[in-house]
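Q: Sequence in, structure out?
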Amino acid sequence: MDEILEILEHDARTTPQEIAKMTGKSLKLVEAAIKKYEKQGIILKYKALINKELLADNHKSVRALIEVSVTPVKNLGFDYIAERIYQFPEVKSCYLLSGTYDLLLVVEGRDIQAVANFVAEKLSSMEHVKGTVTHFLLKKYKEDGDILKSKADNRRIAISY
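A: Exactly. Output:
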């Protein structure tokens, strides 16, 4: 991968001037490369990674990983079903997998019941969906290569008998 892309992937706030200094390339070359990557759709958007556990508000959402087994559609394969599924606003990510299940979804809802309703009412009832397995995320330790620090040191109390 191009070193400009590697730098931006690590920290999207890095300015073209900083990238030029880091790579030894001219500022014009760096700016042109970034514009080209954006135009080609290689750079889709710039995003902040937020540790939601540290937010003060109590409006935290629930995330679940859902394994989905499907029957591929003739002449359309898995893409047709995946496109229908990832259109739901609850679906944050959708991946095609090898192995026991075909698709892996990252789904978000306001609470466990909202995710359960999504699975029962929208996902499981879809044509070509054979089965699902839902795993609720309890805690994130690391995301996209970045270690997330916890709000409080959650030490367990030692128990002796």
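The two ends are 57 Å apart (CA to CA).
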